[in-house]
Specification:
The complex is a heterodimer of chains A (222) and B (287).
Chain A lengths: L2 H13 L9 H13 L4 H12 L3 E2 L2 E5 H11 L6 H10 L3 H10 L11 H9 L3 H6 L10 H14 L9 H4 L2 H16 L6 H13 L9 H4 L1
Antiparallel strand pairs in A: 1-2
Helix pairs in contact in A: 1-4, 2-3, 2-4, 3-4, 4-6, 5-6, 11-12
Chain B lengths: L2 E3 L9 H10 L1 E7 L10 H11 L2 H7 L4 E6 L3 H4 L7 H9 L4 E8 L5 H16 L4 E4 L5 H15 L6 E4 L6 H5 L4 E5 L8 H11 L4 E4 L11 H11 L4 H17 L31
Chain lengths: 222, 287
């Protein structure tokens, strides 16, 4: 996923919503221009994006809702030097929908750099499944391995489909296999099932990591 | 029976309550910001509380199919504590949020000069943010507190139709009925108002602009007393449509004035559909 084309796809899909009351195209055009010249205006515009642009999935990009798309475009319209600070403020001051939009924006906005990593940690600490899953997109590559494994386990535990986790098989390691196997044991002992996608993952990983004690990669645990 | 509880403090309630409320027909609610029993010592403590009202609590409610909205304000009791005064500066950011459908609870507790100032400042915020206001009437010296609240509201420039005066009783209803403000009633197991008394008030004053809530919180209270009131209405000879007006359409109309109600699929589930209100998702059609 290249950031620039993805932003263009989002913009096109949002504007392609069949004519109706929402999205309010005039509002969006003006808001995007305004945050470029007056970044401090972002807070109120960011909060209003759901009311102005709607909250339904985009017909052309059903993985995205109109409000998420509008908020990502607002962040992308900022001067790049403003982005790390403004993204953090929008997250810290945001309601759950605003926080989710910031998390979804992170992989599409290279100018954020590493400034979004503390936001991922915050989101993963919550029990709000919308935020946990939004935190596990491609930007989660920047999470250290221990935090990432905990987040994957949290998905299994809270019923978030593992399809939310970007690069799952690429990153899954022997330690995650051990953790999943332990969780499966607990579930079995309690007479309860593992989610099917977690069982499938464990089966795939067990084939790869069948040999002996799980690897512990000390460097990454710091 | 579809129920919209226009005033309930879910922060203080358990998931068992959400489950029982959903089973009883509660599909939407408004949680006003108020006192938590334990006094707060700083504005930062309010930030966490308000964040929860626009974050965690709506998520919790959604697990039970209940739409959660909030009203945000510095409550009159804590308006008297200078350590909490900075909360006023935080309010604008919360009043911009989608789930915030009014400024509240504002009003009086002990009718101090500090309360006067904070009440008036927050009514001005309601005007500025184009939001309705929820006004708490005091438990002590209630009649005079209600009169004084009405005077402050009249001075604020906020349209009476965008204000609900809450926790009314037999004595204070006549003060409010002709002002154009909405009338709120908190049905409690012992204090405030009971279902049979509420039915009598509905007989006497009609069902227009009447809002019935459980105001359930951390004290002795019962989140199912909205339902009990609906049943008491039916038993007393009111029709299903009267009950629907009081327990659903009235709160939808009042809070719909914010333009921010999000009732999702419930919009279409009513035989007697709600009216249309600019900006609310009840306009979005549906199945």
């Amino acid at each position: 996923m290249e950031p620039e084309p993805e932003l263009e796809r989002l913009r096109a899909a949002l504007l392609a919503v069949p004519d109706g009351r929402l999205p309010d195209r005039d509002w969006l055009t003006e808001a995007l221009a305004r945050v470029g010249s007056e970044p401090a205006a972002l807070g109120r515009l960011f909060a209003a994006a759901g009311r102005r642009c709607g909250r339904e999935p985009l017909p052309d990009l059903p993985d995205w809702t109109a409000d998420d798309a509008a908020r990502v475009l607002l962040l992308a319209a900022l001067p790049p030097t403003e982005l790390p600070g403004q993204a953090e403020t929008c997250y810290r001051h945001g309601d759950a929908a605003e926080k989710r939009a910031v998390l979804r924006a992170l992989p599409l906005l290279p100018a954020v750099g590493d400034a979004g990593v503390p936001l991922l940690h915050d989101a993963i600490r919550t029990n709000d499944t919308r935020l946990v899953s939004a935190a596990l997109g491609p930007y989660a590559d920047r999470l250290d391995q221990a935090a990432w494994r905990q987040a994957v386990l949290k998905c299994v535990f809270t019923g978030i489909p593992l399809s939310a986790v970007s690069g799952l098989d690429r990153r899954a390691d022997a330690e995650l296999t051990t953790m999943l196997a332990g969780f499966a044991d607990e579930r079995r002992a309690a007479g309860r099932d593992m989610p099917a996608d977690a069982t499938a993952l464990l089966d795939r990983l067990s084939v790869l990591h069948r040999s002996g004690t799980p690897a512990r990669s000390g460097a990454e645990e710091a | 029976m579809r129920i919209f509880d226009p005033h309930i403090h879910m922060t203080s309630r358990t998931t068992d309550d959400y489950e029982r409320m959903a089973a009883a027909g509660v599909r939407a609610l408004v949680e006003p910001a108020f006192w938590l029993g334990q006094p707060r010592t700083s504005a930062a403590s309010f930030v966490d509380y308000f964040d929860s009202l626009v974050g965690w609590e709506p998520f919790r409610a959604a697990q039970f199919g209940i739409r959660h909205h909030a009203t945000i304000a510095l409550n009159p009791k804590e308006a008297n504590d200078p350590r909490c005064r900075e909360v006023l500066d935080l309010l604008p950011r919360y009043l911009d949020k989608d789930g915030v459908v009014a400024v509240g609870e504002v009003g009086y507790d002990s009718m101090t000069p500090e309360e006067d100032e904070v009440f008036a400042a927050q009514l001005a915020l309601a005007v500025e943010h184009e939001l309705p206001a929820m006004v708490h009437t005091p438990h002590r010296d209630k009649a005079r507190g209600t009169e004084r609240s009405l005077a402050v509201i009249a001075e604020s420039g906020l349209e009476p139709g965008r204000v609900v005066i809450d926790h009314l009783n037999e004595v204070t209803v006549p003060l409010v009925r002709d002002t154009g403000c909405w009338l709120g009633f908190s049905i409690y197991p012992e204090t405030k108002m009971s279902p049979p008394r509420m039915v009598e008030l509905l007989r006497k004053y009609g069902t227009e602009r009447m809002l019935v809530n459980s105001a359930a919180d951390w004290g002795r209270s019962d989140p199912l007393l909205t339902r009990a009131t609906g049943e008491a209405m039916l038993a007393a000879g009111f029709g299903d449509d009267d009950v629907d007006q009081v327990l659903w359409r009235n709160p939808v109309e009042f809070y719909g004035q914010s333009g921010r109600l999000d009732l999702g699929a419930d919009e279409a589930s009513g035989e007697t559909g709600p009216g249309t209100f600019e900006g609310n998702s009840i306009l979005r059609g549906g199945s």
